[in-house]
UniProtKB/TrEMBL annotation:
This is Putative membrane protein. Residues 14-84 form the DUF202 domain. Keywords: Cell membrane, Membrane, Transmembrane, Transmembrane helix. It is a multi-pass membrane protein.
Length: 120
Protein backbone atom coordinates (compact mmCIF):
# COMPACT_ATOMS: atom_id res chain seq x y z
CA UNK A 1 0.00 0.00 0.00
CA UNK A 2 1.44 3.27 -1.12
CA UNK A 3 1.22 6.47 0.96
CA UNK A 4 -0.66 8.72 -1.43
CA UNK A 5 -1.66 12.25 -0.62
CA UNK A 6 -5.36 12.81 -0.31
CA UNK A 7 -7.38 15.97 -0.80
CA UNK A 8 -7.83 16.13 2.99
CA UNK A 9 -4.08 16.09 3.56
CA UNK A 10 -3.66 19.41 1.74
CA UNK A 11 -5.80 21.13 4.35
CA UNK A 12 -4.85 19.29 7.53
CA UNK A 13 -4.88 22.32 9.82
CA UNK A 14 -8.29 23.46 8.58
CA UNK A 15 -9.75 19.99 9.11
CA UNK A 16 -8.29 19.76 12.59
CA UNK A 17 -9.72 23.19 13.44
CA UNK A 18 -13.09 22.02 12.09
CA UNK A 19 -12.93 18.98 14.39
CA UNK A 20 -12.08 21.15 17.41
CA UNK A 21 -15.03 23.39 16.61
CA UNK A 22 -17.31 20.37 16.29
CA UNK A 23 -16.20 19.04 19.66
CA UNK A 24 -16.74 22.48 21.24
CA UNK A 25 -20.32 22.45 19.90
CA UNK A 26 -20.87 19.00 21.40
CA UNK A 27 -19.54 20.15 24.79
CA UNK A 28 -21.83 23.18 24.61
CA UNK A 29 -24.85 20.98 23.83
CA UNK A 30 -24.09 18.62 26.71
CA UNK A 31 -23.66 21.56 29.07
CA UNK A 32 -26.98 23.10 28.04
CA UNK A 33 -28.78 19.79 28.52
CA UNK A 34 -27.03 19.13 31.83
CA UNK A 35 -27.83 22.54 33.30
CA UNK A 36 -31.48 22.25 32.29
CA UNK A 37 -31.81 18.74 33.67
CA UNK A 38 -30.02 19.63 36.89
CA UNK A 39 -32.10 22.74 37.54
CA UNK A 40 -35.35 20.90 36.90
CA UNK A 41 -34.30 17.94 39.03
CA UNK A 42 -33.12 20.12 41.93
CA UNK A 43 -36.40 22.01 41.85
CA UNK A 44 -38.44 18.83 42.17
CA UNK A 45 -36.22 17.50 44.96
CA UNK A 46 -36.57 20.71 46.96
CA UNK A 47 -40.27 21.29 46.26
CA UNK A 48 -42.46 20.87 49.36
CA UNK A 49 -45.62 22.30 47.87
CA UNK A 50 -48.13 20.94 45.37
CA UNK A 51 -47.72 21.78 41.68
CA UNK A 52 -47.43 25.51 41.14
CA UNK A 53 -46.01 27.90 38.54
CA UNK A 54 -42.45 27.09 39.65
CA UNK A 55 -43.02 23.40 38.83
CA UNK A 56 -44.29 24.23 35.37
CA UNK A 57 -41.38 26.58 34.65
CA UNK A 58 -38.91 23.94 35.91
CA UNK A 59 -40.48 21.36 33.58
CA UNK A 60 -40.33 23.78 30.65
CA UNK A 61 -36.67 24.58 31.40
CA UNK A 62 -35.83 20.87 31.38
CA UNK A 63 -37.64 20.17 28.12
CA UNK A 64 -36.37 23.31 26.35
CA UNK A 65 -32.77 22.70 27.39
CA UNK A 66 -32.89 19.10 26.13
CA UNK A 67 -34.43 20.28 22.84
CA UNK A 68 -31.80 23.01 22.42
CA UNK A 69 -29.02 20.55 23.23
CA UNK A 70 -30.25 17.97 20.72
CA UNK A 71 -30.72 20.64 18.08
CA UNK A 72 -27.19 21.89 18.73
CA UNK A 73 -25.79 18.39 18.23
CA UNK A 74 -27.68 18.07 14.93
CA UNK A 75 -26.55 21.49 13.76
CA UNK A 76 -22.94 20.79 14.76
CA UNK A 77 -22.87 17.51 12.86
CA UNK A 78 -24.36 18.97 9.69
CA UNK A 79 -22.09 22.01 9.93
CA UNK A 80 -19.02 19.81 10.36
CA UNK A 81 -19.87 17.78 7.26
CA UNK A 82 -20.59 20.88 5.15
CA UNK A 83 -17.40 22.60 6.28
CA UNK A 84 -15.32 19.51 5.52
CA UNK A 85 -16.59 19.45 1.95
CA UNK A 86 -16.22 23.21 1.56
CA UNK A 87 -12.64 23.11 2.83
CA UNK A 88 -11.71 20.42 0.32
CA UNK A 89 -13.42 22.29 -2.52
CA UNK A 90 -11.96 25.62 -1.40
CA UNK A 91 -15.45 27.12 -1.25
CA UNK A 92 -15.69 27.69 2.51
CA UNK A 93 -17.83 30.58 3.71
CA UNK A 94 -18.35 31.34 7.36
CA UNK A 95 -21.94 30.51 8.43
CA UNK A 96 -23.89 32.85 10.69
CA UNK A 97 -27.56 31.78 10.75
CA UNK A 98 -26.98 28.73 12.92
CA UNK A 99 -25.14 30.79 15.49
CA UNK A 100 -27.93 33.35 15.59
CA UNK A 101 -30.58 30.66 16.02
CA UNK A 102 -28.65 28.99 18.84
CA UNK A 103 -28.07 32.35 20.52
CA UNK A 104 -31.80 33.07 20.34
CA UNK A 105 -32.64 29.67 21.82
CA UNK A 106 -30.19 30.17 24.69
CA UNK A 107 -31.68 33.65 25.22
CA UNK A 108 -35.17 32.11 25.54
CA UNK A 109 -33.78 29.54 27.98
CA UNK A 110 -32.22 32.37 30.00
CA UNK A 111 -35.59 34.15 30.14
CA UNK A 112 -37.13 30.93 31.48
CA UNK A 113 -34.43 30.76 34.16
CA UNK A 114 -35.17 34.38 35.08
CA UNK A 115 -38.91 33.65 35.30
CA UNK A 116 -38.17 30.65 37.48
CA UNK A 117 -36.05 32.73 39.85
CA UNK A 118 -38.73 35.41 40.08
CA UNK A 119 -41.61 33.01 40.79
CA UNK A 120 -39.92 30.59 43.17
Amino acid sequence: MKNEKTVDSRYIQQHLANERTYLAWIRTALTIMGIGYLSAKLHFLSSLYPIDIGDKIAQIIGVVSIAIGLSTIGYATLSYIKKRTAINNQTFQSPSYGLMILSGAVFVLSILFLAYLLYV
